[in-house]
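Support reply, case 0932

Customer input (verbatim):
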Amino acid sequence: MVNRKDLDPEKSPGAAFGQRLRMLRDERGWTQDELGQRMGYSGTHVSAVETGRRSPTTHFSHSADKVFGTGDLLERQGRAVRHTALLEGFPEYVGFEGRAVELRLFQIGIVPGLLQTPEYAEAITMGAVRRGAITELQAEERLTLLARRQESLRRDPVPLIYAVLDESCIRRVVGGPDVMAAQLDQLKEFAALPSSVLQLAPYDLGERRAFDLPVTLLILADRSHIAYAESAQQGRLERDTRYVQPMMTAYHQLQAEALSQAASVAMIEQLRKGSP
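Our regenerated output:
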């Protein structure tokens, strides 16, 4: 079959679910559209679940079990997917992130994952474990995925990355003084790269700060734009130009209001030396 994506069930619970769904479908000789008709979903939706771009909802898993006559097999496997440490919508975003030619990041409170040191990332993740928000296994999944995402930024050609960090990202100490010092050093190294721009949105920006929540904007090779934003419960991917373009405009306004890269690095250096 042309353009049939290989599935690795060891990659994640979502990939394992997708591989089983495809196997059951192939055994019956059904296309994705044919399975979708039987389940009450589109073939595109079935494809997204099979390839891990969408998580199987409870309704989707129940419908699949009913169609295949598998009891609650798929629902139990789907429950494992939904209990993963990754927010709904995030796996689909990661696929686009790995192909983007330009990334624009805005973050509040913590340094964005793509710019985190391993020690900083581990401190954030283990904090979630101690709070009972995720399990140790989920923490390992989260850190493994983050390492793969960071490695993908070294692809050729290297994507352009613009990062605007709220001042709180560098003021909030994560993992203790040594971990935070290394993280600040890494931000300075990031700013020195020819393919990146780092700016800080200082506290005194006040109401002129364009966003109140973290936002990521991607530009793909075909110049299409994608926006991704998260709440505490889920991530939302937006590709409709009517909604993405105003966010891109707001990001440019934020860049204009934020400190220059030179001033941002100077603030980081002052904090690194212990100055207020």
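We compared this against your earlier run and they match. Two observations from our side: The chain has two domains: 13-82, 90-116+145-272. The chain has a mean pLDDT of 88. Please reopen the case if you see a mismatch on your end.
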